[in-house]
Every structure is written in structure tokens, then in C-alpha cells.
Amino acid sequence: MTPAGHEPRPRVVLVGPMGAGKTTVAALLAQRWGATVRDTDSDIVTAQGREISDIFVDDGEAAFRALEREAVARALAEHDGVLSLGGGAVLDAGTRELLAEHTVVFLQVGLGDAVKRVGLGTSRPLLMGNVRARVKALLDERTPVYASVATHTVDTDGRTPDEVADAIEALLQGVDA
Ligand SMILES: Nc1ncnc2c1ncn2[C@@H]1O[C@H](COP(=O)(O)OP(=O)(O)OP(=O)(O)O)[C@@H](O)[C@H]1O
Ligand SMILES: O=C(O)C1=C[C@@H](O)[C@@H](O)[C@H](O)C1
Ligand SMILES: [Mg+2]
């Protein structure tokens, strides 16, 4: 519940690369806390009535990023539960500014675990081609960006989603989120 007189704000926002487990861990935390969960990728898919891979193919990445910018701003303004962002949401400078007011946990994942988790599916358009090389390039480019918006960082390598959720709870103890 949002306290009377306060704007809604997510208790925690999860950022990090594809395969870090943002969507999975957000759902677990929300369940533990009796809170609602929201995911900006899902918001976009629902609003558009098509998959992210189709938006990339039909309209291009720039169009997806514009939808994502709006989806993140709306979720940050409306949602008072747990919020997970798409892996590339932090590339937008305006989004990074909005995140500065929030509790943001960066879920870190190394190359090996990320590749294992994302597999070879076609639902992540930026990983088409050589998955391992694409994941490595994205991790190299974006790790500093995730770190720059994070108030907390959790390493997910070799941890189950439940263990990651435990680590987040331990980190946030005492944080008025
Ligand atoms: N800690 C973990 N250990 C093992 N597998 C995991 C872990 N976290 C998530 N997974 C699995 O990895 C896959 C990707 O997880 P998830 O979709 O939550 O990642 P994400 O960070 O939301 O990625 P995206 O940026 O593409 O939305 C899923 O199949 C999920 O079950
Ligand atoms: O890291 C990225 O750029 C992406 C991550 C996914 O969550 C989706 O938002 C989309 O596949 C792009
Ligand atoms: Mg996700």
C-alpha cells in the first residue's frame, strides 16, 4: 500500500543484463513481500499486442527504445511493488535520471551463467547470431551503466533465484524503500 499523501514508488527496481534473472527474482520478491510485480518488457508486449522480437523486426530497435522509455517512466510513477526493467532500459539518459530517485539493485551475471540462462531461443533479438559473443559485447558495454544507476549490487553467478532474493533482502534490510 502507498502511504496516504505519498506518490507511489517501487520498493525496489531491478536492473541488469539479459539472463541476470530480473523478471524471475522480481516475482519471487513480490511473492515474499505480498507486493505486486511489474515488468516493463511485459507492459510493452501487453500494450502493443506483439512480442518484443516482432517490434524489433517490424519497427526497429529505436522504436522499441522509445516505447521502453515511456513504459519505464509510467511504471516508476505508478507502481508501488517490485519493478523489473528490460536489460537495455538504462541506456536512456532520461531513464537514468528518473532512476536516481529510487532503490535500484543491479543483478550481476557473468558470461558463462548468462549464456546458460538465455539459451538459444529467439525471444531476445539482440542475441541473434553468436549468442556468446553478443552477450560478451553487451556485458562489456553496459556493466558500467548498470553500476552507475545502482544503489546496491548483487552477484547472481552460481546462485539460485531464491538465493538471489535472499541476498537482496539482506542488502535492503534497514533501507526505507
Ligand atoms: N539465479 C538463476 N539461476 C539459474 N537460472 C536463472 C536464475 N535467474 C533466472 N534464471 C533463468 O534464466 C532465464 C532468464 O531469466 P529472466 O527472464 O528472469 O532474466 P531477465 O534478467 O529478466 O532477462 P531479460 O533482460 O531478457 O528480461 C529464465 O529461464 C530463468 O528461469
Ligand atoms: O538488453 C536488451 O537490450 C534487451 C533486454 C530484454 O529485456 C528486452 O527488453 C529486449 O530483448 C532488449
Ligand atoms: Mg526480464
From TrEMBL:
The keyword Amino-acid biosynthesis applies. InterPro entries: P-loop_NTPase (IPR027417), Shikimate/glucono_kinase (IPR031322), Shikimate_kinase/TSH1 (IPR000623), Shikimate_kinase_CS (IPR023000). Mg(2+) binds at residue 23. It comes from the Bacteria. Pathway: Metabolic intermediate biosynthesis; chorismate biosynthesis; chorismate from D-erythrose 4-phosphate and phosphoenolpyruvate: step 5/7. Its cofactor is Mg(2+). Substrate binds at residues 41, 65, 87, 142. One of its GO terms (cellular component) is cytosol. Binds 1 Mg(2+) ion per subunit. Pfam families: SKI. Its main location: cytoplasm. Its EC number is 2.7.1.71. It is found in: Cytoplasm. Catalyzes the specific phosphorylation of the 3-hydroxyl group of shikimic acid using ATP as a cosubstrate. Belongs to the shikimate kinase family. This is Shikimate kinase. It comes from Nocardioides marinus. The gene is aroK.
